[in-house]
Design a protein that fits this description.
By secondary structure, the chain is an alpha+beta fold. It folds into two domains: 183 residues, Beta Polymerase, domain 2 (2-Layer Sandwich), CATH 3.30.460; 53 residues. A hairpin with a 2-residue loop joins β9 and β10. α5 packs antiparallel against α6. 32% of the residues are buried.
């Protein structure tokens, strides 16, 4: 049997990052429990729960998913009940942040993502991605991802002594996220598109099916119980196919390249 401790042995930097994310997940779980908000472990986090009973050993990422209505409820509650340890990262709290989803960020750590992708963000601590589901399909997801790449490229430009470029960046981001994406969501309803994907601009195209998710159930993750889809096997097969097959060693990569925990 393969020894996965070479990736995240106790006391290692990666394991410390994972444990901090676990603490953040417990906080979100407690808020959702108190306010009857349905969330579930998503994507690679759910894969880790099923295949490894916890984090994928080489992973430094944690994803949760919600319906759009529950996402809005959670964001409102997090704003009202924010722990001093964490901060909510959105367009409103970080003017250089480009994604259409929220992140919960740790305030006592600092990460450097692959290719320094987050270098202009205001908040750069360890994070949890908070996704929601929206109507869409593969074609629309690919199209909006290209738009988001353009918006993201603008945020990487630093030379802006008069602040004019910042205003242009905020304007373009607003047009893309609030006008174009809203129009495309309207089109999905107009043309009867019922498939659910992660929101436009996130870069993910794999569909989700609510019948695989609800009613949510509890699953063991790092020795604790958290919400998961009711049929994780069906959910994971749609995303990964044979998800129990381990990737080759050269494909086992983490998202961040450096992390400091204070």
């Amino acid at each position: 049997m393969e020894d996965f401790s070479i990736y995240n042995a106790e006391g290692s930097d990666l394991r410390n990052v994972q444990l901090r994310m676990l603490e953040m997940l417990e906080y979100i779980d407690s808020v959702c429990e108190r306010h009857n908000i349905n969330y579930w472990l998503g994507a690679g986090t759910l894969l880790g729960a099923v295949r490894h009973k916890g984090f994928i050993p080489w992973d430094d990422d944690l994803d949760i998913e919600l319906t759009r209505s529950d996402y809005k409820k959670l964001i409102r509650r997090l704003k009202k009940e924010m722990s001093p340890k964490f901060v909510l990262q959105t367009h409103q709290t970080d003017r250089n942040y480009v994604l259409p989803i929220a992140k919960l960020r740790d305030t006592t750590s600092h990460i450097t993502e692959f290719r320094n992708a987050d270098r202009n963000y205001k908040y750069r601590g360890i994070f949890i991605d908070i996704f929601f589901l929206d109507r869409g399909n593969h074609f629309l997801a690919r199209f909006t991802n290209n738009l988001q790449k353009f918006v993201y490229a603008l945020t990487l430009i630093k030379n802006d002594p008069f602040g004019i470029l910042l205003l242009i960046k905020i304007l373009i981001r607003g047009i893309v996220n609030n006008l174009i994406f809203t129009f495309l969501r309207f089109c999905t309803r107009l043309f009867g598109i019922r498939s659910l994907i992660l929101p436009f601009g996130t870069g993910f195209t794999a569909p989700r099916d609510l019948k695989d998710i609800f009613p949510v159930q509890k699953i063991i993750f790092e020795g604790k119980y958290f919400n998961a889809p009711s049929y994780p096997d069906a959910y994971l097969k749609k995303l990964y196919g044979d998800y129990m097959k381990l990737p080759d060693e050269d494909q086992r990569r983490v998202h961040a390249i450096k992390c400091e925990i204070y």
